[in-house]
Amino acid sequence: MLPPQLSYAYLAQLSLAVGALVFLAGLAVLHLVAIVWARLYFYRRLEPLDPEADRLPGVSILKPLVGIDKNVYANLETYFTLEYPRYELLFCLESSEDIVSMVVDTLIEKYPHVDARVFKSPQQHSVNPKVNNMMQGFECAKYDLLLISDSGVRMLPQALADMVRCMGRDVGMVHQMPFTEQRPGFHNVVQSAYFGGTHAKVYITANLVGINCTTGMSCLFRKSILDPLPGGLAYFGRYLAEDFFLSQYVRSRGFRVVLSHYPALQDGSTSVGNLRRRLIRWIKLRSAMIPHVVLLEPFSDCLLSGLMAAWALAFLWPSGVNVYAYFLIHCLAWLLCDYLLMLNCMESPAPFSRLAFVCAWLLCACMSPLNVLCAQCQRGVEWRGRRFRLEWGGVTRELPPVASVAAATAAAAAESADPASQKKVAI
Ligand SMILES: CCCCCCCC/C=C\CCCCCCCC(=O)N[C@@H](CO[C@@H]1OC[C@@H](O)[C@H](O)[C@H]1O)[C@H](O)/C=C/CCCCCCCCCCCCC
Ligand SMILES: O=c1ccn([C@@H]2O[C@H](COP(=O)(O)OP(=O)(O)O)[C@@H](O)[C@H]2O)c(=O)[nH]1
């Protein structure tokens, strides 16, 4: 029988309090490591090798496109001006009527010396529409090195050369950390705060300790690694998170997965509402694939971890700690760490004020736990007008479209078919 002051309830609370403080210390270490690592690693230019000796291999760039994303012309144009001697652009469209083909055709006309092809009729290999789309280019790719590059990403001229140079003999995949292109507008600050803060911290440290966190928005890999798989890339089309499983497969073949020195510059002009929907979709993917990590997600955010630590301190030192003061200092320290990390993910100084960052950061901090909650409340996943159901482990099946989604898709298609609106978005 335990003495009353050592009851089981007390021991349980004591362990929780100590556990919470250890967890918080772990988070602080992740933050500091990410800040230092980003400072030392990002934008480090690898010495250009001797042009004679440095025979860079050709790269086939797969560009899956569907509809018109914001700034699509400017973003796609960056792929025509890469500082790289040998590459081909394989634009994969979902249909010949897709309005984005006008943008692609205009660019191909403007840069006739760039090796580029357009595909417009994907086959239904699998449930993942992005994989179906990319298969058109995958099957015709000239080179062994393949770069998957999403439509909303902008590439710096030197970034492809960097990715290829990172592709050592023992490396099977080189990926870029998702970050944000700097454009005007508060929504852009919110994206920078999220992708340069929480996201960068986890992405960098997970990558450092060898945990698979690769996103497929910009990743280079060797096509030949997929040779043993039936269908090659199509094999991963059974999952919606094809990137996670592709990277896992590359590792299982004994290759290393390496982070590029240049982050992927996503277009930051999407609204905060769209960013939220996107992050909720990603949480649903993670919940299906790695539910144990998703359980930790809310507690690894600033507000919940701060509340948890404040409670732990009040429990362990009831009269020694002012919990309000602690919570305030906790949030300020977190804000400062996120700011430093975000600056280290940027090539040049932030083009927005510190006040704008604080507002964006507060929005992200409040949004994150809500996102996790929302993701657990709705089961289906909506992606570009389609609906899916994820099974445990990540295998996916497509659901029939609901009326609202079908109506939105039809409206978008009607707008695309309208010649007046086509003119507006083409350039
Ligand atoms: C003390 C431990 C704390 C752990 C706390 C974890 C908190 C996580 C918080 C933030 C999440 C950041 C995660 C990083 C990247 C994930 C992004 C993501 O979910 N991407 C998915 C979607 O990508 C798109 O999917 C469709 C595809 O077609 C598109 O091209 C893609 O871009 C992607 O599918 C999923 C990838 C798997 C991510 C696994 C993340 C594992 C995180 C482990 C964290 C452990 C950290 C420990 C460090 C020591
Ligand atoms: O039905 C689809 C959905 C997406 N994509 C492509 O997949 C990539 C990623 O799409 P999105 O940006 O919507 O994904 P997210 O990064 O938000 O997960 C983009 O190049 C899209 O063009 C596609 O080809 N077909």
From TrEMBL:
Gene3D superfamilies registered for this protein in UniProt: Spore Coat Polysaccharide Biosynthesis Protein SpsA, Chain A
SUPFAM superfamilies, sorted: Nucleotide-diphospho-sugar transferases
Residue stretches spanning the membrane: 12-38, 323-343, 355-373
Protein name, UniProt field: ceramide glucosyltransferase
Group of enzyme by EC: transferase
GO biological process annotation, one example: glucosylceramide biosynthetic process
Catalyzed reaction equations: UDP-alpha-D-xylose + an N-acylsphing-4-enine = a beta-D-xylosyl-(1<->1')-N-acylsphing-4-enine + UDP + H(+); N-(9Z-octadecenoyl)-sphing-4-enine + UDP-alpha-D-xylose = beta-D-xylosyl-(1<->1')-N-(9Z-octadecenoyl)-sphing-4-enine + UDP + H(+)
Pathway(s): Sphingolipid metabolism; Lipid metabolism; sphingolipid metabolism
Topological relation to the membrane, as annotated: Multi-pass membrane protein
An annotated Gene Ontology molecular function: ceramide glucosyltransferase activity
PANTHER family per the UniProt record, alphabetical: CERAMIDE GLUCOSYLTRANSFERASE (PTHR12726:SF0)
Enzyme Commission number(s) of this protein: 2.4.1.80
The organism of origin for this protein: Macrostomum lignano
The family this protein is said to belong to: Belongs to the glycosyltransferase 2 family.
InterPro entries in the record: Ceramide_glucosylTrfase (IPR025993), Nucleotide-diphossugar_trans (IPR029044)
GO terms for cellular component: Golgi membrane
Pfam families documented for this protein: Glyco_transf_21
Annotated compartments: Golgi apparatus membrane
Residues annotated as signal peptide: none
Keywords, comma-separated and alphabetical: Glycosyltransferase, Golgi apparatus, Lipid biosynthesis, Lipid metabolism, Membrane, Transferase, Transmembrane, Transmembrane helix
